[in-house]
Design a protein that fits this description.
Layout lengths: L1 E6 L4 H16 L3 E6 L19 H9 L17 H12 L5 H10 L3 E5 H7 L12 E3 L1 H9 L3 E4 L1
Parallel strand pairs: 1-2, 1-5, 2-3, 3-4
Helix pairs in contact: 1-4
Amino acid sequence: MKVTLVVFSGDMDKAMAAFNIAIGAGSMGMEVSMFFTFWGIHILKRPNTPSRAKGLIRRMLSMMSPPDARKLPLSKLNMLGIGPFMMKKLMKQYRMPGVQEMISLAEQSGVKLIACTTTMELMGISKDQLVEQVDRVAGVATYLSEASESGINLFV
């Protein structure tokens, strides 16, 4: 069975849910691909990589967006960053992996990570700003091709 996920959200809790499903499916021997688009592309940004966005609007978007997976907000109860701090503390207490660790676990489970070219162009993100686990940079036609062969297709 093949599973496809569109990761649209850049929220930490939604990213964790998407990776949890993908890693679980991959561990069960399913073929899994995750297509990261719009706010979800920030999950794949390499830590400590300076923005190279050009133009006023792209630079402003870059400044207002999370720099990488370590700084993702929560979709609810973000409370100026206190919510994610509390969540990460609980996750550490219960030995749950964070989003960055889940990216590596997904790779180990055979999950393919695809970064959306349109989003990258729109937001001024280059391929070298993405984590090494990204399998490819591709457009919506690639996602649709993968999804058309999939028995499970989720939008997170």
